[in-house]
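Q: Here's a chain of 208 amino acids. Please give me its 3D structure as tokens.
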Amino acid sequence: MNKFFIPLVTTLACSFLTLSTSFGQTLTQTQVKRFNQIYKNYGKIWLSGYKALLTSNISPGVGAHPVAPASTMVNQVVVSFYKTINANKKPTLVKNRYTFPGFNDFEYANQVCKIVLANSKQMARLEKNDFVARKFCEYTTFYYGLFVEDFSKDKVSSINAYVNRRHFTNQQWNNLTRGRYGFSYSMLQTRDLQVTRLGKYVQTTRKG
């Protein structure tokens, strides 16, 4: 198995949509409850993806250094990461816009994680539940930064659509790629990595 493939099965036990929930410096009980449910639904799958990235040396705390060519980064690493995050959840059409439930929950988890990493009292509210909240959140915010934050909304929506291609009929896909579902379809290209944090992990080809 290619070491850059992110598996959808777990080996570890622990659409771009604007979030409707308003986050402050502290979490509401409703937010804690939703986060805990998200972890229950996706934790093992996401952690398997995080582990694959860690073993590929795309890891927090060690500094960025080249690990793969740009084509491998786009076609294998990024695509596999988004497949893992989406967790085979079928896209839904809301007000003529496709949304991606797994990815939306990843965004939500990232927002919660940013709060609890900055506030130990809030972190303790999560640690009362049976999982290692701090490590999960450190990985979640780190990989969200690498694989989401530096890309445009259209790029993120396009990647989500691409990894969910099998859920669309041919007609739906044609309409999607023509921009009829709330975003302009433009799949990630190797050149898009140049101005991103993820680009620091790309191996450059020496000429001559």
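Q: Can you summarize the key feature?
A: Strands lie at 68-69, 92-94, 97-99, 202-203.
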